[in-house]
Amino acid sequence: MKKFLKIALIAFAVIVFVVVVAVIYISSSDLPKYDVLQVDLKVELSPERIANGKRLSMMICNHCHLNNETRTLSGKRMADLPPEFGVVSSRNITRDPKYGIGSWSDGEIYFFLRTGINPKRGGSYVPPWMPKYMHAANEDLYDIIAYLRSDEPELTATESEAGPIEPSLLVKFLARVAFKPLPYPENPISRPDTSDLLAFGKYLADGMLGCFDCHAEDFKTMNIAEPEKSPGYYGGGNLLLDMTGSKVYSRNITSDKQHGIGNWTDEQFKTLIREGFRPDGSIVSFPMLRARFLSDNELDAIVAYIRSVPTSSKQNQPRPKYELLHNASEGEQLFYDYGCASCHGSDGKGYGDLTKAAIKYPVDSMLVDVIENPAKYWQNTLMPTWAGHIPEEEMKLIVAHVKSLARQ
Ligand code: HEC
Ligand code: HEC
Ligand code: HEC
User: Rounded to an integer, what distance in angstroms lies between the CA atom of residue 65 and that of residue 62?
Assistant: First the structure.
């Protein structure tokens, strides 16, 4: 018996030792690296390309790369990333040759966007904190590349280092077992026929805009190569975080009448996608953003396609109530209830900085105006247009709270 105990103890010690060594090894090593394919590409810069690239980029790239301080795509802390992934920032993708991507070739950008393998960082593969575009049509990627090379103001060469990227042990571990680069497509991918609404809608919803990523059951089980095989495809339930760090579950958006959005009209569905407001007037919470720049045809296609996917009877998770830890003022409560906090964060420093608003708009009526009509101030803003959504009395209380954020 004693001998058995001794063997068991030794075996246990060996296992502990191996685990400790593995943990030390994984945590002290970099993310795995992969082979980089040299892609020979020169994208011609036409005004049409740049315009479409900008439109696409505003819907799929800029919200992650736009820095509030510089107003350029110089990168920022990804505050809504679950903390178990570590500390992550997006990178500087302005035209600056040193800090940005001014020295990348067209082929390098193309290869990176397709596969997630970074040619300028020794072939390291980017974990899921940046999407990859394996289904994107070549022409759409070329348009994005043309835009990144253009003189648009948000791409002005900006000399600032991107913030820290410190992947957690969990990410480093998953990078070895689960996060693998996507295959580089053997043949060029052409744009679908835009009059074939179902094919075009699938392309946009699954391939470009990431609707399926968030609206499947779980990022860990989603199938990027064949989206429709993802568990819970469009049935929602995926756990995300808003800018206050609170949990938000994506929702069932299949046409199930009881659990999905089968009772919404197409117009209501389109208003939510483009403007962010539901039929009852409430705003959809961050991280779902408005896709303001979709054409009517694109919007029709997305709605037609999502309407066509098999219905799911999955029940939505209730939106967890915010627990305000102190005695919130009425204004602060409204700031949460209307969903302002979901983007701006509890302290106003989240997505869109509010801490200088009281100085920039010293008179209350100015502050009301920027809240109600933000598009007058920023052409490309993702801040919703609140005009007509908040009664005057409540707006006063919200404004008072926004002003108090500057003092905190
Ligand atoms: C969900 C947020 C998110 C979106 C959307 C996103 N990115 Fe990124 N991007 C990141 C993060 C985070 C990194 C840093 C990744 C790393 O190095 O681990 C990054 C890195 C990059 C890099 C590498 C830069 C370098 O110096 O290594 C390029 C280029 C880039 N992104 C371009 C784009 C383009 C173009 C789009 C749209 C087609 C886009 N990104 C969409 C978050 C995002
Ligand atoms: C970054 C993740 C993300 C992306 C991308 C995304 N959604 Fe959402 N979506 C969510 C979350 C989370 C909610 C629930 C928010 C809430 O509780 O207010 C939601 C809610 C919705 C709703 C409201 C459903 C309801 O019952 O109120 C619709 C409709 C919707 N999304 C459609 C889409 C479409 C179409 C796309 C692509 C154009 C898309 N979403 C892209 C995360 C996302
Ligand atoms: C979908 C995310 C989102 C939601 C929801 C949202 N905002 Fe914003 N807001 C922004 C962004 C982003 C900006 C910065 C403008 C830009 O960069 O385009 C902004 C700008 C502002 C500004 C101007 C700040 C400045 O310094 O110029 C104020 C004030 C403001 N928001 C208040 C509110 C209030 C009040 C609510 C709720 C009723 C709200 N926002 C809801 C994203 C959001």
Answer: 5
Q: How far is CA 130 from CA 89, 269, 401, in A?
A: 10, 27, 34
Q: Which residue has the tokens 């394919």?
A: 37
Q: Which two tokens stand for residue 397?
A: 């209380």
For residues 335 and 347, the answer to whether their CB atoms sit within 8 Å is no
Nearest CA to ligand 3 atom 30: 371
pLDDT digits (tens, 9 = 90+) for 191-250: 999 999 999 999 999 999 999 999 999 988 888 889 999 999 999 999 999 999 899 999
Angstrom distance (rounded) from CA 327 to CA 329: 6
CB distance 238 to 221 below 8 Å: no
Going from the Cα of 25 to the center of ligand 1, the distance in angstroms, rounded, reads 27
| CA separation for the pair 59, 54 (Å, rounded) | 9
Query: Is the CB of residue 357 less than 8 Å from the CB of residue 367?
Result: yes
Which ligand sits closest to the CA of 256?
A: 2
Whether 86 is in the pocket of ligand 3, judged by its Cβ within 6 Å, is: no
Residues in contact with ligand 1 by the CB-under-6-Å rule are: 57, 60-61, 64-65, 78, 88, 90-91, 93, 101, 109, 112-113, 118, 120-121, 126, 129-131, 144, 165
Q: Are 84 and 152 in contact (CB under 8 A)?
A: no
Tokens at residue 245, please? 């760090």
pLDDT value, residue 174: 87
Give the Cα separation of 138 and 142 in Å (integer).
6
Question: Ligand 3: which atom is nearest the Cα of residue 386?
Answer: 38
d(CA 386, CA 275): 10
* Ligand 2 probe mutation, 64, 214, 234, most atoms within 8 A of CB: 214
Return d(Cα 244, Cα 232) in angstroms, integer: 26
- Determine contact, residues 41/67, Cβ cutoff 8 Å: no
